[in-house]
Amino acid sequence: MLTDLIAETLHDRRDALIALTQALIRIPTLNPPGDCYYDICKVLADRLKPQGFDCKFVRAEGALADSAEHPRWNLVARYQGEEPGDCLHFNSHHDVVETGHGWTKDPFGGELEDGRIYGRGACDMKGGLAASIIACEALIAACKTAGIPLRGSLEISATADEESGGYGGVAYLAEQGFFSPDRVQHVIIPEPLNKDRICLGHRGVWWAEIETKGRIAHGSMPFLGTCAVRHMGAVLAEIETQLLPLLASKTTAMPVVPEGAKQSTLNINSIHGGEAEPEPGYDGFPSPCVPDRCRIIIDRRFLIEESLDEVKAEISALMERVRAQRPDFEYEIRPLHEVQPSMTEEDAPVVTAVADAIAQVMGQQAEFVVSPGTYDQKHIDRIGKLKNCIAYGPGILELAHQPDEWVGVEDMMQSAHVMALAAVQLLGLPTEPNPS
To answer: Is 275 a catalytic residue?
Structure first.
């Protein structure tokens, strides 16, 4: 049977999976600024081209953060089967966040120890990228061994900038038609959401900068000025006492994980008021001034039951309440970034196929979840107009962006097996060769 051949072929590719994951981790695709994007695309193309994949290098020219020094390179590799049919696309981002502090392993060493591969991006999401490649290779090889023509096509993409919004990656590709429903019918994004979970989508997000405005004066005579920091203190108090309790009362039917993310949330990302931070090496005192500007960045995560207009109106109403209480209160709200919630139906073809494969490989029922934060499904849904999309891949979500990040080899093997079996179902492949 084809499914037996897939299992055998995957077993024989265990060492190849380890080596590929290590090779990808050792390419430091840090974002920002966007290092080594072409390098990782080249490594992947050199691997996939000899196996019959048509590889396209796509630079997101003009996209956010694209520059001559740090071009936003993406790879789209397509394997066309012998018979017509659907296209199953595996999309992984190749960029990783900064390493941070606290590592006991080389962040770009790809060290293998006790069945774990360590390194920045091991979990999020170079392990998932490697698993999807091995899954496709195993399926193609098993079909050839069984004499079963591959129906439809398999596509693998390695894309830029997911960690900073995906505008130089999946968003750009979607704008160029790479995810149009007449070209691609099924998408699996191997994000690290645990190997027995299917992620149906994510909450929405609205980022904004709020600035309170005052009037500068000498610090010894603050009564001659207006302190923007005090104004912002009133805004923060209103957020703390009025808005946060309101958000905590809003809950969702979306299966968001962890439990606390089933309610609306707001995070204050940063705050700055008064004089700019001193240059490195300056050890003098600041000058005595009443601060005339104070700014915060808010990160508002909202539910599918809420509208974006409602989210924005809550902040506007809050600011107007503060204005009514404080003389000389002036402010400005500058929207920075917005993403609508996205959720694929549980009976969508890609969900059913992956759930069936999880049951077959792991002997358990898949758990359906929704991510608290966004990922590239937002662009496939909103720009590409393709709803049949999920996140499924190896790795433990809580390890993402952590020191000593790792991915388990066995988790990758099982996820690759699930991906390959899901492909059999989605492409409508027979499990036995035609006797004729």
So the answer is: no
